[in-house]
C-alpha cells in the first residue's frame, strides 16, 4: 500500500519523508489555505523533493477551464496528478487531461458508480472520501470494498486512493480491503507507530539495561 501525505505543510511532508513514509502527496484548496501559501508556489516546492505523485486541485468548475488549469498545474512538474472533482465536467476534463498523458486524480467520490465513471474516463486515481461518509452516518469503508470489487471485476487500472482518512483504524481497514493508496494527515500516519505495549516494553528494557550497566557504544 502506498502512503500519500494529505497536507500542503512542507515541513510535515519533509519530516514524514525522512521516515520513508511518503510515496506521494495530496493537497486540496482547503489544505493550501491552511498552509497560507500560494498554490503554484507551494506545489512547486513539494515537487522539488517528492518524486511520487503530487495531487494539485483545479479551482474551475467548467470543463474547458478545468482543462486549462490542469495543464498549468501539470506544467509545474512531471509528477503532478491533476485533481478534478467528480462532476460531469470533471470527468470530461479527466478524459482530456489523461489523454494528454497527465495523471488525473478524481476527487470527492462518494459512490461506487461515481468511481466506475472515473475509471472509464481514464483516471489514474479515484479518491473516495471515507471520513466524510462516516460523518453523515454512512460506513465509508464499504465504499472502498465496493470499488475494489468493481475495479477487479473489469480489470480497471485506476488506483483506489482511500481519502479523508481520519484514524489509524481507517488506515488498517483500507489496507485490509486492498486500497492501492491511502492519503492521510501526517498525524494519522505517525500515530500508526504508537502502541502502549511498545512504550511499556521499551521502558522495561531501558530500566534493565541501566540496572545491569549495559553499554554498546
Ligand atoms: C484528499 O485528497 C482529500 O482532499 C482529503 O483526504 C479530504 O480529507 P478531509 O475529509 O479530512 O478534509
UniProtKB/TrEMBL annotation:
Entry keyword Ion transport: no
Enzyme active site: 83 (schiff-base intermediate with substrate)
UniProt keyword list: Cytoplasm, Pentose shunt, Schiff base, Transferase
Its biological purpose: Transaldolase is important for the balance of metabolites in the pentose-phosphate pathway.
Pathway: Carbohydrate degradation; pentose phosphate pathway; D-glyceraldehyde 3-phosphate and beta-D-fructose 6-phosphate from D-ribose 5-phosphate and D-xylulose 5-phosphate (non-oxidative stage): step 2/3
Protein name, entry field: Probable transaldolase
EC number: 2.2.1.2
Highest classification ranks of the organism: Bacteria, Pseudomonadati, Pseudomonadota, Alphaproteobacteria, Rhodobacterales
PANTHER family: FRUCTOSE-6-PHOSPHATE ALDOLASE 1-RELATED (PTHR10683:SF40), TRANSALDOLASE (PTHR10683)
Record's catalysed reaction(s): D-sedoheptulose 7-phosphate + D-glyceraldehyde 3-phosphate = D-erythrose 4-phosphate + beta-D-fructose 6-phosphate
